[in-house]
Specification:
Oligomer: heterodimer
Radius of gyration of chain A: 13 Å
Structural class of chain A: mainly beta
Structural class of chain B: mainly beta
Helix content of chain B: under 10%
Radius of gyration of chain B: 13 Å
Shape of chain B: globular
Helix content of chain A: under 10%
Strand content of chain A: over 45%
Distance between the termini of chain B: 36 Å
Largest sheet of chain A: 6 strands, mixed
Number of helices of chain B: 0
Number of helices of chain A: 0
Amino acid sequence: QQQVKQSPQSLIVQKGGISIINCAYENTAFDYFPWYQQFPGKGPALLIAIRPDVSEKKEGRFTISFNKSAKQFSLHIMDSQPGDSATYFCAVSGGYQKVTFGIGTKLQVIP
Amino acid sequence: NAGVTQTPKFQVLKTGQSMTLQCAQDMNHEYMSWYRQDPGMGLRLIHYSVGAGITDQGEVPNGYNVSRSTTEDFPLRLLSAAPSQTSVYFCASRDGATNEKLFFGSGTQLSVL
């Protein structure tokens, strides 16, 4: 059973545009919802994360929107830049629970 | 402070061979885990550990063994390599229940012929 469903699998955005990646989860026991960014040949690195007590968290050009009732959360990248081209993973976890990842979204920002 | 260190970076095996992927962290993290990354499959959890002497299975544990004799090290053993185990393997650690940020190593690219 897939605990977190991520879409789309690939995304092409023009420079300056908004990139949006979505994730949906099943288990309401999760209480930590991070997004990881991975560049080719590197390990993933934490980009931004949210807990379910807030509906939105913003860090620079990156924003997480969280909808607890719909069990969905999304990553918005404003003013997308070519340097943002990477693979993005959403994940779910809680306390000492294992961390489960989505299948990833390969983002390409074209000039 | 090196973070999470994985060795080797690349490895080619023949079907049936065994090997150990090494993972070490110098952050005194209690939680350590192994993932494999395959195209279109994302990061799938193989095994994880919440402290020395404690391990548990993830989503795809078959064909892999782990042990955790120290806080710092969490090796992953392939008992009898199969072509289906061709993948990129990542080790990751985190502080514990209160700090859920995962720190990843740089990965091991494994090919089984």
